[in-house]
Amino acid sequence: MPRHRRNPNQKYHDRIAGRYEQIYDNEYWQWHDALTWDHIKRFLPTNLATPVLDLGCGSGKWGRKLLKSGYHVTFVDLSAKMVDEARKQVAEIGGESKAEFLQADLMELSALPAGHFGFAVALGEPIGSTDDPAKALREIARCLAPGGILLASFDNRIACIDYYVERGKADELEAFLRTGRTRWLTRDEAERFELHTFTPDQLRKLFAAAGLEVLDMIGKTVLPMRRFRDYLADPEARRRWARIEKSLAGDPANLARCPHLQVAGRKAPA
Q: What is the pTM assigned to this prediction?
């Protein structure tokens, strides 16, 4: 993908690439990421020779954890500067020998071999940030080996309602509920890219249409700890809140209050 032809999504992520991890590094995000990794570990391939993907990798946080776990990882992102940052971060941990890097739109992964990858993560809502999430999911499914698993997160449509109500924007809320589309809020209008949001039922249908069986879905997070991150400063308190969160996150009755939904889907075995 030519670096000079940038859409708003690329412009935003190119600009913040060098400080991306600092933006998401505080007590809340450390707690949040530990919960995410616990969920990921449930679905990791037992064979460390299985090639894996970090899709919408950003600076490569999850791919680096997969590298450290012993897998060979291909890092993919729409933003050229994010790919550069991921490469830099991987070099700092000495993981180059097991890493590959690709700048690509998730809707166009023809540079990746079909049926090759046993596991993929797409965290930080990259699928919903594409122009056509259904097409992106089909492309990802094409790349997965039979029985391969995708673990991906998405913006939760129902959780977005409060934003419009709090601002008294009834017209915008009605439009949002019709389309499920909103925009990433950043000060520069040239960087405001479109986001697709989903309900749990819509995600199940989206995965099924791509040939992926939903194995699990959790909310992230049920507890509103982003507003109460001071509670997470003490390690024991952090562990206690995590235990409570885990007891709630998989209950379908609790999903509506979560900003994000995390789905594990499996391609049919051969």
A: 0.92
Interacting residues of 131 by C-beta distance below 8 A, sequence separation 6+: 107, 194
Query: 53-82 pLDDT, tens per residue?
Result: 999 999 999 999 999 999 999 999 999 999
- pLDDT of 4 over the 60 cut: no
> Across the strands, what pairs with 218?
262
**Which CATH architecture is the domain 8-267 placed in?**
3-Layer(aba) Sandwich (3.40)
User: Given a cut of 80, is residue 5 above it in pLDDT?
Assistant: no
> What does the DSSP assignment read for 156-178?
ETGGGHHHHHHTT-HHHHHHHHH
- From the CA atom positions of the chain, what is the Rg in Å? 18
What is the rounded CA–CA span in Å between residue 184 and residue 12?
10
Q: Which helix (H) or strand (E) holds 99?
A: strand 99-103
Cβ-based neighbour number of residue 77 at 10 Å: 29
> What is the predicted pLDDT for the residue at 186?
77
Euclidean distance between CA atoms 86 and 161, whole angstroms: 34
Distances (CA, A) of 224 to 43, 73, 125, 137, 247: 26, 32, 19, 29, 15
Q: What is the pLDDT of residues 23-44, one digit of tens each?
A: 778 899 999 999 999 999 999 9
Q: Are 61 and 33 in contact (CB under 8 A)?
A: yes
What gap in Å lies between CA 220 and CA 232, rounded to an integer?
16
The residues spanned by each domain of the chain are 8-267
Fill in the DSSP letter of residue 87. Answer: H
Q: What are phi and psi of 260, to 5 degrees?
A: -135, 155
Cβ atoms of 214 and 265 closer than 8 Å: yes
